Every structure is written in structure tokens, then in C-alpha cells.
Amino acid sequence: MFRLLTTISLFLLSSLLYAQHPVGFYSKADLEYVKANLTGNALLQQSLASIKKETDPWLDKPVDVPMPKDAAGGYSHEKHKANYLLLFNSGILYSITGKQAYADLIARVLLQYAKLNPGLKNHPQATSTSPGRIFWQALNDANWLVYTSMAYDMAFNGIKKSDRDLITQGAFKPEVDFITQDLKPWFNLIHNHAVWATAAVGMVGIATDNDQYIKLALKGSSGNGSSGFYALMGQLFSPDGYYTEGPYYTRYALLPFMIFANALENKFPEQHLFQYRNAILEKAVNTALQHTNLDGMFFPMNDAIKDKDYTTSEMLMALNVATKAYGVKPAYLFVAKKQGKVLLGKGGVQLAKAMADPKAIPDWFPYTSIENTDGPTGKQGGLDILRLGKGQDQSSLIFKYTSHGLSHGHFDKLNLNLFDGGKEILQDYGSARFVGVEQKYGGRYLPENGKYAVQTIAHNTLVVDETSHFKGEEKIAENFAPVKRFSSLDQPNLLVASAMDTNATAGVRMDRSVYFLQMPNGQKLLIDLLKASSSSQHQYDLPFHYLGQFIHASFPYQSSKNSMTTLGKKNGYQYLWKEAEANVANTMVQFSFMNGKTFYSLSSMIHDSAKLFFARSGANDPDFNLRHDPVFVIRKNASNQTFVNVLEIHGQYDPVMETSSGGNASVQQIGLLQDNQEMTVANIMVNGQALLICESRNDLSKISQHQFEISGKKMEWVGPYALFYNGRKL
Amino acid sequence: MFRLLTTISLFLLSSLLYAQHPVGFYSKADLEYVKANLTGNALLQQSLASIKKETDPWLDKPVDVPMPKDAAGGYSHEKHKANYLLLFNSGILYSITGKQAYADLIARVLLQYAKLNPGLKNHPQATSTSPGRIFWQALNDANWLVYTSMAYDMAFNGIKKSDRDLITQGAFKPEVDFITQDLKPWFNLIHNHAVWATAAVGMVGIATDNDQYIKLALKGSSGNGSSGFYALMGQLFSPDGYYTEGPYYTRYALLPFMIFANALENKFPEQHLFQYRNAILEKAVNTALQHTNLDGMFFPMNDAIKDKDYTTSEMLMALNVATKAYGVKPAYLFVAKKQGKVLLGKGGVQLAKAMADPKAIPDWFPYTSIENTDGPTGKQGGLDILRLGKGQDQSSLIFKYTSHGLSHGHFDKLNLNLFDGGKEILQDYGSARFVGVEQKYGGRYLPENGKYAVQTIAHNTLVVDETSHFKGEEKIAENFAPVKRFSSLDQPNLLVASAMDTNATAGVRMDRSVYFLQMPNGQKLLIDLLKASSSSQHQYDLPFHYLGQFIHASFPYQSSKNSMTTLGKKNGYQYLWKEAEANVANTMVQFSFMNGKTFYSLSSMIHDSAKLFFARSGANDPDFNLRHDPVFVIRKNASNQTFVNVLEIHGQYDPVMETSSGGNASVQQIGLLQDNQEMTVANIMVNGQALLICESRNDLSKISQHQFEISGKKMEWVGPYALFYNGRKL
Question: Same domain for A379 and A518?
Fold first, then answer.
């Protein structure tokens, strides 16, 4: 830490000597590169024409800078947001064209803010502990500072000194003071908000040659580096680049990470910011891109809105900087093509030049199966993405055994989500929020987010005694993470992951293993072994939030006819309507649904007796904030219980041709041949053949030898698990 | 009629003289044209390669002709279906390439059917009054005959005489006898099934040179033309080409209409079949295409499955024949491009040649506002499609005042449906059926179709005393149709339609007028005036089946929290969960929802008191056959009641940029200034300006002069209605 601080002090010193602009978004060299390569590239010309078209009409028109009044979605909110984007684009155009009118526009608008900002009190719609001034929350004020300071820096040489002073003192200083002093605890958080806050303050520092701001941004208020930008780069990512809040917020945090890193690189190139922590920002970008579905949507873990994909403005910016820092990569080209435009920075130009050769762009994003650790040292659990198949037919299973994920985390230890060919099949509800829709609680998180969407029952993992993991208390949840047992991501047709948790519910150990495999005949099976162990009796609920049309259930059930009640009264259960229930015993139950043109069947072993429920979200929802999505729940009362479930992807339906094939499941029987402290052996009959899953309980060594005898035939293997199909090891 | 019969006899005579093949799908001239134009056209080569790829693997492989056993979706059903398509393609390939192997394949498979068919009894899964033999319903047997007879005709010259005789006697005759004798009443229906049945028998007649079959097909069993193909062409369409069962079944019926007409044209060119009844088949094709939404989906009136669009195989065939008969048209080219392939008939080749010039294909389908009459003489009501705006932003309002529409009709007099920019906004449920999915009741219509989907409450029209129109009895419904009052489709920014019904509910007259307008500021409004008149007190329910996310309601309501009951007990009401209800009086209520990126607000005048309900389908649905879709219901108890509703399309939401604008409705107040036997005058305050809707009650003359005075200002107009905005006539 001492060396880091010394280094920072040294490069702050150097900054005084070489104060010159632009240096925030563009370095002088970047700008020369961009200008030299603009002509002759259609995509660059389109991107340039597009921002000109948006910007030019304002060159000779007054820009409204309204008194802050509305929540997100309302006029004043949207106007201030539009203003900072306008100024940023105007800065780019000034840099590229040198046309004074663009600098004048920036000066004119920022002078209006210089009059407005000093008098602002907390926003009238502010409700959070980090209220904003221009906007309802300080986060948006930080967004404003990041963009306007870049605009100011780009136009620096086109704004006269007296105006620059007015802007620095009037537009920027009150906001920086507000963030660093009034909101000091917020500014010093380890959280995506703080990434924005530190980037905002640091970018203003760079734009206005204020070293004090830069220092605050890098080292935090204490000055000792326990908070600030370096601490955020050090603590929010695991060593392999997993962002602890999950992919939805990675996307959001990457922008300030990348853009501030870029500005720091421009100003202090000798510091090699982009190589910091083994190039953690490169890992962060690559991991974020891997955490998307075939359609580019970020996997909706934790608080997430499901229509965010990698074409957002944040990812456009991140890709631009990543390309400048780490070079052109096929994955980046694929994403840039989907984005359909490039940012007119150095990296954007590099991308556009490379994309001029269509053969350089791969047909599919180079997705792979990946295992991420979580936590700054990689010791707070992890996340496995198991990818089966290729191209359009790829299926992705997400197995989540991460830490809580800060304030946007959900109570979902050992959760599963399944995507198949671009479709969400076993869903995470995501978050209950209509961001940007003023009529929906000002675009903020809705009450149903905390009361339903974050609760365990809203996920595909075990709920004990109708109580969420860690009793739904974030402060407790933040202290624990599950532990990985074993995994294997190398065999393309057999992907395996297993983890254990002993903290989510006091006195209950949960072990969950997933075997995601493609059978010799091409069929895909997800085998899910979930073992709950306790010395006392509990109610174990295992929900499957399937998405699709109910097709068939193999068991009789009683459905709600003229009246219907909720599945429970608390911890999210009160948001589920109980549409049907069944009592079953000592059998295999099978439930099939259809999504798009594919059938999915869940086959579940029922040992002793169990209750089954078909439920649907939407109860106790007076403002109609929830979606009405179905869930299938398996309920067991037991102390020790092993759930064996097989989800099968099968068949094909052609609604235009009115034909279907393979609509019946091929799993015929599920049994446990052994299930004790030594080993669990499950036997699954598929298409008349036995599929054996053998898994050690405690000896997880990769070199231990095991054996199991069935019908006089001895199966032998090395390591914590093995699968045998028709007697042959897979 | 006498002349018609004479004509038929004459051309049957001629057929004996010139029996030659091919003559069913191809005429000899067609085939020469196709062969001469195949090379050098990429689309044709692709289409050829595509069917070769499907067909060639079977040339040296046994084809299974299984014993009929399964319902739709099951193996034997799908196999027989695949077989007839295989033979048809093989026939095309034989015709084009002359390769004997294709004819051999056809002969080989048809000889298998020649062994199978004579022994067949009714299909084990048959449930309807028209059971099939190869399939569960006779309709599918007719499909089989249409395709296999074309295949046989194409391969005629490549099959040896002895085999031809075996096939004629064994494969075709038992099926033709079954359809024309065992199912005689069905064969003689006026219904889409009979179109298939007559085409099947007629096409076999043409393929096997059997004039008796052709005669039966054309004139029906009686021989007097009261049934059969001419009667179907004469009675199923209105003079302007509206098909009485609605667009979903037009699509289905068009194939046998067009393909049999094509064969008749080939065999008897002097009869000018394509010009019959003022070229009714051309009108039918063009009307069918106009009855689609921007995405090509057929409007889901009556029994309809919502994923049928104009790319289905039926429309591919219809377009091919229509082009041959009526020439290449821009609309056909647009559809052919969406279909992405062409049939290798004469019309298909004409289309492919024209499409080689991309400029010939319009950017958008040339949709227009249209008014169709219903019934053979156009006197059984009608249907208006009001189209506002252009290109991607086009909105389409469907106002249905047709006759019942035979056995697939719904009880939905004066129903409205709204589409906006490719999205369904006010929906018709369509039908409850998963066609082709064996697990769902063998792919047949589900019980919930008759009990919910056809009922009045499942539509956007008035339900009196919780009872469906005509008490839900088809036999009664078929005797009546509403009467058009007035309409105007000429002004692109103000589209008007009005109709009246006095039969759907005894003792209640319903008048409904829709004014669909684009305001000077670009905003779109749908003004819906529905007047119920009776001498006695009734419960009037007006449902709006909106599709979208609930955003805001201007009125307080009580929502179902921990338990929920159905909206009612009968006539479809038992399928709706009552999610919330409200009591309101003397006010305007406003309800907003969002669909895609657009807001929609329904503003409703409440005179005296009313109850409002938010409900959702899915109650009493033990097999989970229904979708869970929302509906907003306005309930009034009254004898005379005028409902004034305004649906406004407004605002924009950008989920990626997280911004929204224009999210609040602009309708501020709705009142009735006059509402009596002479005139109804509604006053709608929009954006602070008065929009007056003036409508005559009984004097609907286009030349009558009317006036209305407000605040001392006199409004004057000619005709049954007028709109004034801010004092200015629209």
C-alpha cells in the first residue's frame, strides 16, 4: 500500500508539469489517429453523421437547463440526461472538426449549469440515502459529471479562460463538493455507485487540472487508499474478472471503470493503468461479455432488468476503451457488429477498420464454458457457466455459488438458471423495476423487488421452512459464500459443477451437483442432484421457475377452480398464487412444457411422499408490478433428503407446418442405488438404457479410486464423480 | 344454374378427348416455362436444391407407411403427412429433371398405400363427425388426396400401367368412396372442409382421368350444383372476396381453392375458371393478404391460432397459382420475399424472375384501409379494417360486424381489435388449441375453446347480463348479422365505421361507432362510442382485452390479495380471475399500459356509477390450456347506456437508454353534451382543446344537414357524423 501511495503522489506531481487538453476522453495522439483514419470507412462516417444529426440542430437553438423537479422518466430528469449526452457528442465533434460552434455549445450550456448548480439543494424526489441535486439520486449526478467533464476537456481550448473559471467554480465545484463532502460515506463505498462517484470526481480533476480531485478519486477521502478508484479496482472484481454484483451491474460499472482508466492512461501513461492487477479491466470486459446469452442479454443474476444487452451505451464505451488498451479481438468485433456503430475514439476507429473486412467477424460470439471465482482474492465462492453445443443450438447452464453481491444481491445460494438457444428456460425473476418509467415509482426499485424478487423462493434453489437464505438479511448474507466441491469444464459433452453451502440455513447443509450432458444421440440432459442434510426435520421446497406453455403432467393434481389462495404468507410466498397441488409418493413424476419450438421435460424422483405445486407470481400485487410467471415446486418434509431431477431438452414443434416430433420425454425411471456418507449413486433410465451417476460425498480428491457394483458388474473410476451410460463410462 | 350445368357437362366431355399428363399441378406449357427459366436464378436454384435435399435421401431408402394409429403430433400422423409432402416434391423433381427414380419413389409409396387403404376402418383416434381413415379426421385424408394425386399426375408417364391401375383402385378409390359415400353429408357441406374434400376428389379425377369424380367434385353428390366446388366458390366468399370463416381459415381454404382451380384451368382452359364470379379467387387472395398484420400474421378473428402468417405452405401455393392466373403484383413480390422461397410452378418462377430486381419489391406491404361485406351477396354485415399511418408505424383497427362465420365463428358482434406497429394491443383471444401437439388433446380444439375463447366475454364487445351473444348458440347466430350504419375510409387521418345490431341480445340494440384519427400533432386516438338501448334494465359489461404491462390507473381499486375468485360462473366468466375491482361514479377513469416501447391509455367516461374490473384468463383451467392474459372490464347497470371510450397511443420508452417520454395521457375529460334519439354529441378534452364528436342517431343520410350549438358557436355539417377539434371541422 505504501508503494502505491508514493506512486500516486509522484504522478500527481507530473500532472502539474504537463497540463494540456484534450486528455480525458482523447489523448492528443488518440485524436490524431482518429482524424487520420476517418475517411473511407463507411461505419465511421455513419457514426459521425449520426452524432452530427443529433447535435447540429442545437448549435443555434437554446438548450433548456430546467430546475430539477422530476423523478426518472419525468421531463427535468430526461432533459438533464439528454443535455450531458449532447455535450459529450459536441465535444467529440469539436475535437474532430475543430468547428468553434461545438465548443460554444458546450460553454453556453455549462455556463447555464454554472448558474444553476450552486443554488441546488437535495432533489425534491430524492428518497435514497444518496440523494442527488440535478437528479433524484446522486448516481445520476455522477453520470452527469463524467460526461460533462469529458465534454469540457475536449472543448477546453475553445472556451475562453473567464468562462472556464465560471464553469469550474459554478458547474463542477458544487457537485464535487456535494459528492465528496455531503455524501462522503457514499463516495467511499466499495460499490458500483462509488465507481461512478470516483470517476466523476477524478474526471473533473483531469478536465480542470485539479490534482486534489484526482487524489480524492484515486485514494478516497481518507487519503490512505482504503477507498477510491484503486480500492474499487482491487476489491470489486475477483482475480479472474468476475464483478461481485453480477453481470447486470458489471455492465453499468464498466463504463466509469474504463473511461476513468482511459483518462488516467492518457494523463499518466507511465503508470500503465490498463495493466493494473494483471490487467483486471481486460478480464472484467471479457468476463462481462461471456456473461451474456446468445441474444447478447446479460444473465439476469441479482437485481437485473432483462432487456439489457451488450449493445447499451455503457458497453459501447467499454468496448472502445478495451480495444484501445488490449487490441482488436474477434469477440469484440462480433459485439461491435451487433452494436451497429462505434464510438469515435481510438478503439472505435480500430474496430471499424477491422470490421471493414467482414471475414474478420466471427459468425457467433466465441462463448466458452467458464468458471469464475468471486471475491477480491477469489475465495468467496464462484460461478460456473456450462455451455453445451454450438452456434444457435447452444444451451447455457448457470450455477451460482457466489458471495451475496452487495446491496443488489439475491438470496439464491446454489441457484440454477438455464438458457437454451437464446431462450430463458429456467428463469431468475430478475428485479421488479421499470427503470426510466416515471409512472412506476419514479423508475426506482419497486417494493416487490425486496419482498419477492430477491427472496429465495423466486429462484431455482432450495428453500428451507419457507424462509429465505440468511433469513433474507443482507448483512448476514455478506459474510458467507458457498464452497466449490468439484467441477469439470473440459469435456465438451459432459460439463460438471458441484458446490456446498452450510450457512444459508442454520443447521442445514446443501450439496448441489449439476451434470449437463449431451447424449450420444444428441439429446441434452441436465441432471440436478441436490442433497439437503440436517439433524432435524424441515420443510424443503425446490422450485423450478420454468418459462413456457404447460404441456403435460404425469401425475394427478387438484387445480384451483373458482377460487385460489397464495402458496404461503411470507418471504415471497405471499406473491405466488397456488394454481394446483398434488400429493405423490414413491414414484417418478414428469412435467413437460414447451418454449418456442422445443419441448422440455422435468423428471423428478419422489422418495416417500411429497407435495407438488404449480404456482404463479402476481398475488398481493396491488400495483400490478409483477409478471405472471409460472413455477413448479417440489415439497418434501424430511431431515435428510436427496432431490434427483432431470431436465431434458427434446423434440421439435413447427407451428407453421403444424407438425411436432419427439414430444414425449425419454427419461423413464429414476432411482437411488446408494445414498450415504460415502457415496450417492443415482440410476436414470433413459430410452431403455441405464445412466448411472456416481458421486462421492466427502472424498473429493481427484486421484481417489472408487468403485460400485451393479448386477454383478463392477464400475471403477478415479475422482469425485463418474457417469456410466449403458455400462460405458462417459 | 342451368347454363352452369350444361357448361360443366360440356367440358367433361372434352376431357375424355384430351386425357394427357401432367395436367394437375403443371400443364405441359407450365412445365416448359419452368424448365426454360430455371437456370441463372439464384432463388429458383435454392428452392430446387432445398426440395432435392429433402427428397433425394429417400430415393434408395424404404418409406414407412404405418398403420394409422396416432392423433395429430403422433408418429403415424406425422409420417403420413411427411409422406404426401415427399411425394409431391418428388413429382416436381420428376417433372423438372425427368429422372426416373423420382417417379419410382412415387409409385413405390403409392403402391404401399394401395395395399393399406382398402382395409382401413375409421381411425382409432377419430372423435369428430367426419372421422378419417389414414388420419384422425377426414380433412387430413383430403389433404393427403390433394397432394398424392398431384404427385401421381406428375409421375403418370413414369409409372407403368399395371401399377397405375393398382394405385387408382387401391390407394385412391377407397378414399374417394369413403369421402363421397360414407361422409356424403360432410362432402356436401358449405365449409372449408368441403373445399378440401371436393378438391381432393376432383384432383384424383383429373389425375386418374375419372370424369365421374370431377363431376362429383364440381356439382356435389346431388349433381345439381347445390354443393360442390362451384357452390363453394359462389357461397363462401362475399362479392369482394371476404371469406366467411375469417382470415385464419381463408388461409387454409385458399390452398384447395387455388390448386383445384389451377388443375381445372390446365385441363379445361376454355372455361376460364380464374375469371369465375368476376375473378373471385383473385379477390380472395388479395383480401386474405390485406387481413394480416405488419408481421404477416393473419388477424385472429374467430377460431384462429396466432402464429399463422402468410409464409405458410398454403399461402406459398396460393401465391404461386395467383401469380400464374393474375400476374406479378408488388404485393405478391413483398410476400414472396418474406416467404423466402417459391414453389417451382409457373407462378413461382414468374415471382422469382421478378424478384431478381430488388427494386421491384416494395419496402412495405401495400396495406390499405378496406371495407369487406360478408355473405354470398354481400348482405350479411361486413368488416372494416381502418389503417392509420404508414410503414412500421401503421396502426390497424379491425371492426367486425360480420355474420357468424360457420362452425368456427365466435360470438363477437361489433367486436374491436387493435394492432399497432406489428403488436397486438386489443386482442382477440383466438382459439384455445395447440394444433399438431399430440399431448394437448391430440392437437384438436380444446374444451376451453368452446367454453371460453368463442364466448362474448373473451372479446372486446358488449356482454349483456353475463350472457354471450345469441346465448352462445351457433344455430341461432347463423341467422343474423349486424347492419352497417356508415363508414368513411377515404380521409387518411380520420377513419370512421359504425354498425348496429339488434339480434345478438333480445331486446337490446347496440350501436357502435369507431373514429380512428391522427391529430394534427401526430397523436393517434381511437374514439369508441357504444350505445346500448333497451326498454328494460340490464347489466352491461364492456371488456378491453389489452396486451401489455399495467402502468397506472387513475382510480382507487381493491385488489385480490391472499385469495381470488372468478369474475362469474358461466358463459366464459368462470375462466377469468378477478384480480381487482373498483366502484366509480360520475368521473373519467384512465388506465395506462405499456406494450413494447409505447404507452396506451384508455380513458372512459363514467356516467352515474359503474364497476370496473381487472381480470385475467386462467381460472377453471385444470389442464393449463389457457394463456394468462389481462382484461379491463367496465360494468354498468342500466337500460340505456352510452359508453364513450378513448384509447390513446402515446409516448415512447427506451429500455436500453433507460429513458421515457410522453408517458402521460393527454385526454383530460370526457362528457356527453347531448345523447338522445336525434343525436349524440361527445366532448373530449385533449391537451386542453375540445374535440367534439357529433353523430346522428337515426338520420344516416349522407346529404342531411345537421347543426349543434356550443357556447354560442354553431357547428354545421352534412352527413351522419362530424368531428370538430378546437372549433375546426376535421
Answer: yes
Does residue A50 lie in a domain region? no
Can you give the pLDDT at residue B87?
A: 98
To the query of whether residue B249 is one of the catalytic residues in this protein, the response is yes
pTM (predicted TM-score): 0.91
Residue in B closest to A581 by C-alpha: B622
Which tens digit of pLDDT belongs to each residue from A158-181?
Answer: 999 999 999 999 999 999 999 999
CATH of the domain at B628: 2.70.98.70
Q: For B156-193, how does the pLDDT look when each residue is reduced to its tens digit (9 = 90+)? A: 999 999 999 999 999 999 999 999 999 999 999 999 99
Of B439, B440, B663, the CB nearest to A438: B663
Provide long-range contacts, Cβ within 8 A and 24+ apart, for A37-44. Answer: A37/A349, A37/A353, A38/A96, A38/A344, A38/A349, A41/A349, A41/A352, A41/A353, A41/A356, A42/A356, A43/A341, A43/A342, A43/A352, A43/A355, A43/A356, A44/A342, A44/A344, A44/A348, A44/A349, A44/A352
Least confident span in A199-213, A469-483, A524-538, B18-32? B18-32
| Proportion of chain B above pLDDT 70, given as a percent | 97
Q: Tell me if residue A646 falls in helix, strand or coil.
A: strand
Does A565 contact B563 at a Cβ distance shorter than 8 Å?
yes
In terms of Cα–Cα distance, which of A454, A342, A341, A339 is closest to A405? A454
Q: How many angstroms separate the CA atoms of A46 and B416, rounded?
A: 43
If one counts the domains in chain A, the total is 4
CA quadruple B97, B98, B101, B107: dihedral sign = positive
Model pLDDT for residues B73-99, shown as the tens digit of each residue? 789 999 999 999 999 999 999 999 999
Do B457 and B353 reside in the same domain of the chain? no
List the strands of the sheet with A395-402, edge to edge.
A370-373, A381-388, A395-402, A415-420, A423-426
User: Considering only CA atoms, which of B40, B126, B144 is closest in space to residue B85?
Assistant: B144
| Residues 6+ away with beta carbon under 8 Å from B638 | B532, B537, B538, B540, B608
CA distance A200 to A214: 10
Q: State the nearest Cα–Cα gap between B548 and chain A, in angstroms.
A: 11
For residue B51, what pLDDT band results from cuts at 50, 70 and 90?
A: very high
Of the residues A665, A688, A705, the one at which a domain ends: A665
Do residues B628 and B714 share a domain?
no
Domain shared by B343 and B473, yes or no: no
Least CB–CB distance from A438: residue in B311, B619, B660: B660
- List, in order, residues 6 or more apart from B290 with CB less than 8 Å away: B367, B368, B370, B385
Q: Which chain A residue's Cα is nearest to B77?
A: A659
One domain, residues B58 and B93? yes
Q: Are A239 and A278 in contact (CB under 8 A)?
A: yes
- The reported pLDDT for the residue numbered B74 is 86
- Asked if the structure places residue B443 within a domain, the reply is yes
**Judgement on whether residues B111 and B39 belong to the same structural domain of the protein:** yes
One domain, residues B616 and B480: yes
A428-473 tens-digit pLDDT? 999 999 998 989 998 999 999 999 999 999 999 999 999 999 999 9
- Whether residues B664 and A620 touch (CB distance < 8 A) is answered with no
Element (H, E) at A8: helix A2-17
Higher pLDDT, A19 or A445: A445
Angle between helices B2-17 and B211-219 (to 10 degrees): 160
- The Cα of A501 is separated from the nearest Cα of chain B by a number of Å equal to 33
- Rounded CA-CA distance A638/B168 in Å is 68
| CATH number of the domain where residue A96 is located | 1.50.10.100
Amino acid at A370: I
pLDDT (0 to 100) of residue A74: 86
**Single-letter amino acid, residue A598:** T
> In the prediction, which pLDDT does B520 show?
86
- Answer whether A307 sits within 8 Å of B440, measured CB to CB: no
Range of the domain at A175: 59-209
